[in-house]
Amino acid sequence: MSVFEYQAIDQQQKKVSGLIESEHIKNARIQLKEQQLTLLSIAPTKQNSAKTKQLFQKHLSMADIAMLTRQLGSLIQAAIPIDQALNTLLQNQHKKHVVKVIKQTRSQILQGQTLAKSLGSNYDQFPDYYLATIELGEASAKLGTILEALAIDIEKQQHFRRKVSAAMIYPLVVSVIALVVVYSLLVFIVPQIAEVFQESGQELPGITTFVISLNEFLTRHTLTIFGLLFSVIITLKLLLKKPSIKEKMQRLLVKAPAIGKVLITTNAIRFARTFALLYESGAPVISALNNSAMSLNYLPMRQAILKAREKVREGSSLFSAFKQYQALPPVTLYMLASGETSGKLAKMLNKAAQNQESEIDHYTTKLVNIFEPVMILIMGGVVLFIVLAMLLPIFELNQIPL
User: Which one has a higher pLDDT value, 14 or 360?
Assistant: First the structure.
């Protein structure tokens, strides 16, 4: 099948564009005519080129996906056909990148594709587990209900992510402000005072000499320092695109006391919610494990779950497989075991996710409460060090006999 990019006029005399799959350009023209579109232009587009083009366009945020999912679910539950429901969403949407996704999806629906495949035609806009869940909804004839459940799940994940992000942003902002204050003192204030000492010709204390040397270093090499920092950030971003390097860095990062707990717990929560949603929607266990694992950012946990999946495929219980590879934290693991034994797996996993969300919320709040006074003490100590370095020569100058 070839991919063609087209521009046309619809029944409302509005200009529309999108991609269409067909064996030949002639067939593509016929398909567009059947959709009651007046064709303006059509040209073959390589799928890889389309993917490359998408990389430079704004992607849907999870908030956008949650909003579209909830609205589409409500319209489908009201017995409105999918193409009409998408058209309704289109009339009430003003974000250009969202409009483009809806148009592309509707175009594929009108060609006879399923909703899951139509959404998947928007390259990398929707997570794999999201598409898999919608596919299950279409197969079970409960699409509206599953879309609503999917929207609720995404909103819960977003709410939790915002809480954790807000807790992490505060220490970052305080740290940046502290660095800016110290840098300003060293670069703008210290030179003016140091000039006075140098004119006096007196012997300076060690800490004063150190601060003046630090000022000279920063003044001479500021551009070099910022250039190196920029280079390091870019290099790290490029390296983290390689799964093997990203995994090694995550294994090192997880050993950090505070960061490690947050990283493991947040990924365990995501797995629990995603697996529970897929399992409750009727997905086969193997498929649910695969899609849930692929939704995780923490690669060691993802790999452990994929290994456990193979054990489950061989006939092992979920608990035994996950315990063997230490794929999940103990709390999630034993809630999973309880759910597997009682036949309430989805319910117990959702409960585990809820409990761990409360735990990580309290944990991050405690971290921030501890960080605040510690950061104030550190910043105060650094400022005091600089002030003492400037004041000591003045005290010594006053003690010199006239």
Answer: 360
